[in-house]
Amino acid sequence: MNKIKRNTLLSCVFALSVSVFAHAAPVSAPKVIIDSDYNTLSDDGQLGVMAAQLQADGKINVLGITVVSGNQWLKQGVADALKSVERLGVENQIGVYSGANYALSHDIKTIRKELELSGKGDGYLGAWSSPEPMTEKDLKAPPDGFATKAKLQSKDAVDFIVETVKKYPHEVSILAIGPLTNLAQAVHKNPEIVPLIKQIIYMGGAVDVPGNTTPTAEFNWWFDPEAAHIMVRQPIPQVIIPLDVTNTVVMDKKKYDRIVNDPAKQTIITKMFKQLNGHGYTGTGFEEDPKSTMNIWDTLTIAYLMDPKFATEVVTEFVDVDMNFGKNAGRSVGYRGAAPAGEKLQKVKVVKRFDNDRFFDFYTDLLTRPVPVKLSK
């Protein structure tokens, strides 16, 4: 090969390499599984939007979304997740996996008896508030219809979690933003994955504040208290974002307007955010009641994942979850000193306060970017 041809070939190879690496996610981009009781565009769905936009930037590598019953029954959550990835244009990059439909041992008969003892908090029971959909005909379509291109992955959510953690040992972070049934089943079925999980970041629990679903329990951990009890005992690096902090991160009308009423940033996401703003709001929603407010929940986990400095106050303590029948089912308790004798608890990080102004800038930016997302080739 003559010198000119050789140099031309090397130049082409170099250019191709630069092109490939310019569009690839950086090596440091965190690998993530989103384990979620998915919904169209409440907190779980909002996190899905944020994750897709971060993935388009090469800042995160979402390996999959595993769905569990919680906010909605499993079938409805799966339908909403499939439409979400399709709406965002990432159905070929982010797979959706179906997981647990029922809690390990928290059924409706038990729940009714517990509520008689404890009373309701905000009265939110998630999936238990409506009949379980048994067929496709029982599902409620998102505002823009069911998915037509995105298809459910054939692999079960639990198997996906196990196989993915084994494939990427010490690299996978899990955002656990729903009941913990999938994760509890995964570590029970394959306990060898426990030391291989990089970290779990939960939105769950109410450590030093009252609960919401009941006076003592936060919804995600109340829905399956046995699963939560199992997971907080695992020797895995764990970060808990409980009601203690979510109660202090509040959206008001001004913040809401930044998302839905900026004429230069109108997308299907901002329009649906406005259409679905009733969930989780006081009164009748921002459009009718400008004094309405909404706490921010699951989306704090992805902010923390991207930069732990979003958390301005973090304590390290032992945390336990009451899985026993009674008025305190699902209650989370923190111990800053020694753990109770005989209890094999783990020290975990518990977030108490967030940099709210910085978070809302981050949150608003990701929710108002163009959709479908602009994926790197």
Automatic annotation (TrEMBL):
<keyword id="KW-0326">Glycosidase</keyword>
<dbReference type="InterPro" id="IPR036452">
    <property type="entry name" value="Ribo_hydro-like"/>
</dbReference>
<dbReference type="InterPro" id="IPR023186">
    <property type="entry name" value="IUNH"/>
</dbReference>
<feature type="domain" description="Inosine/uridine-preferring nucleoside hydrolase">
    <location>
        <begin position="32"/>
        <end position="361"/>
    </location>
</feature>
<keyword id="KW-0378">Hydrolase</keyword>
<feature type="signal peptide">
    <location>
        <begin position="1"/>
        <end position="24"/>
    </location>
</feature>
<dbReference type="GO" id="GO:0016787">
    <property type="term" value="F:hydrolase activity"/>
</dbReference>
<dbReference type="InterPro" id="IPR001910">
    <property type="entry name" value="Inosine/uridine_hydrolase_dom"/>
</dbReference>
<keyword id="KW-0732">Signal</keyword>
<protein>
    <submittedName>
        <fullName>Nucleoside hydrolase</fullName>
    </submittedName>
</protein>
<dbReference type="Pfam" id="PF01156">
    <property type="entry name" value="IU_nuc_hydro"/>
</dbReference>
